[in-house]
Amino acid sequence: MIRLTDLGKTYGSKTALAPISVTFAEHSFTCIVGKSGCGKTTLLRLLAGLEEKTTGSMEGLPRRIAPVFQEPRLMPWLTVAQNIAFAARHDPTLWGGDVPDSHSAKSVENQPKVRSLLQKLGLEHDGGLYPAQLSGGMAQRVSLGRTLFYGPDLILMDEPFSALDYFTRRNLQHMLLQLFNAEKKTILFVTHDVEEALLLGDRIVVLDGTGLKADRPIPLPRPRKATDPAFQALRQEMLEILSGGED
Amino acid sequence: MAKRIGQGLLLPVLGLAAWYAVARLQLFSPYLLPGPGAVWEALGELWRGGTLVHHLAISLQRVFAGFLLSAVTAIPLGIVCGRSRLFYTYCWFLLEFFRHVPPLAAIPLIILWAGIGELSKLVIIFWACFFPLFLNTISGIRGCDPKWVEVGRSLDFTEGQIIRQIQLPAALDSIVTGLQLSLGYSWRALIGAELIAASAGIGYLILDAEEMSRPDIVIVGILCIGVVGTLLDWIFLLLVKHFLPWRGTKEALHDPTH
Q: Which pLDDT band holds residue B15 (cuts at 50, 70, 90)?
C-alpha cells in the first residue's frame, strides 16, 4: 500500500500541488484526472523521485518505479529493440539470465526478453527501426516497452496517449489493459480525459488546485463501453465534479 | 547518384576547359599561369620519382597527429565544460582569447619555444583543430535534451552512466561535425605549419617550387591539398555513416499506414 500524507509541492510562492493525502493499493489501476495546472504531473514526478517534495510524506513506495512520459522520449541513436532494453545498460540483471553478446542492434533484438516484449507490443517486425522512422503510436509503444523491460512495481503514466489520434489511442488503451491484466502492476495513470479514465481505471481520483476533490471506485466490469448507461452516468458525475459542482 | 556526381563535376570540367583555352591562347605568360599540360607533366615527374608520395605521406602524418591530439584533448575538455558551467566560467576567457588568435600569428613564438622540428608543426595543427571540436562538443553536451537525462534518472542510472549512455551519444552528432571541421582546419593549417623550416611535406613542396620558379609544381601542390582534403572528408563521412547509422534516419519517415 502506497500512503501519501499531506504531500505537496511549491515553487517559491507558486503552488504546484496542494497538499493531498491518499492511498494506492498494490496491483491497482488508478486514474488521476483534473484540469491543467492542478498538480497531476507534479504528483507523478514526486513519486518518480524527479522532484523534491515541499511538504508531507510518502510511505510504502516500491523499490522499482518507472514513468511513461507524455512524449516517448526515445534515444534517437538506438533502435527500437535497444531503446526497449535501455535499462539493462544500467543493470545487466534485467536481461533475466540471457545476457546478449553485445549491445549491438541485432544481438539485443534477438534477446528473448526483448523479443517477447516486441511481440506483446505488436512491434515484432520493427525492432531494428530507429525512432525517427516510427509513427507516434509505435514510439509510445516502445516507450511503454522500455518501462516494462525495467520491470517496475509501480508505473507512473503521464497522459501517455494524449498526443495520439483516436484509433491509435483506443488500440493502445486496449493493449495497456491486456498488459495490466497479465502483469498486475500498480499503475497511476494521469489523464485530462474523463472517458479515458473511466475506460481504464479501477478507481478515479480527481485533483484541483486545492488538493483532492474526489476519489471514486469505478465499479464497472471490463471491457467497458462508453455507450453503457452506467458509464455515461459516472462520466456525467465526474464532469460535474471537474467543472466545479459539489462533490 | 551518378547524376549528382556528374552535376558536381560540371563546373570543375568547365574550369579546366577555360584554363586550357587561356593557356592555349597564351593570354598570360606560362610563368604566371602554366597550362594544364605543363601541370600534368610536373605531376607525372613528381609521381614517378616518388617525391609527391613522400611529401604527401609526411603531410598526412602531421595532419593526423595534430588531429588526433586535438580530438583526445578537445572532446574530454568539451564534455567537462559542457556539463560544468563553473568550470567553463573559469576557462572561457582564456579559451575565447586563443580561439580568436590564428596560429599563424604565433609562428615566431612557436618556433622560439618549440624549435623548428616536428613539435612546432604539431602545435600549429593542434591549435587550428582544437577549437571547432571543443566548441562543438560543448554545444552537443549542452544541447542534450534534459528529458533524455530524466529518462536515465528515472531508470536509476548513475551520473557516470548518464554521461556515457545519454549525454555523450546525444552529443555525437555535434562532435562528428566538430571532427569534420577540425579535419578540414588541420589540412588548411598544414601549409602554415610547413612554413617553419620544413624539409618535407606538401607545404614545403609548394614553397620550394616557389623558390625554384616552378609555378606548375605550385599548382600540383595546391591540387593535391584540395583533392586529398576532399577525399579525407569523404572517407570520414563514410565512416560516420557506418558507425552512426541513425544519422539521416530523420528523413526516412515510416509508412504512416503501418
A: very high
Query: CB of A96 within 8 A of CB of A186?
Result: no
DSSP string computed for A15-54? EEEEEEEEEE-TT-EEEEEE-TTSSHHHHHHHHHTSS--S
Instruction: Cite the residue boundaries of each domain of chain A with CATH code 3.40.50.300.
Output: 2-74+152-242
Asked if A132 lies within 8 A of B253 by C-beta distance, the reply is yes
End-to-end CA distance of chain A: 26
Q: Which three cell numbers stand for residue B97?
A: 582569447
Q: Which of A49, A75, A135 sits opposite B169 (nearest CB)?
A: A75
Topology classification of domain A2-74+152-242: Rossmann fold (3.40.50)
Judged by CB atoms closer than 8 Å, whether chains meet at A132 and B244 is answered as no
C-alpha span between A127 and A143 (Å, rounded): 13
Do the interacting molecules here have an ipTM over 0.90? no
- Structural domains in chain B plus CATH codes: 55-243 (1.10.3720.10)
Strand order from edge to edge, sheet including A186-190 = A65-68, A154-158, A186-190, A29-34, A203-208, A211-217
pLDDT of B255 > 80? The answer is no
pLDDT per residue as tens digits for the range B47-90? 998 999 999 999 999 999 999 999 999 999 999 999 888 888 88
Which positions of chain A have pLDDT values less than 50? Answer: 246-247
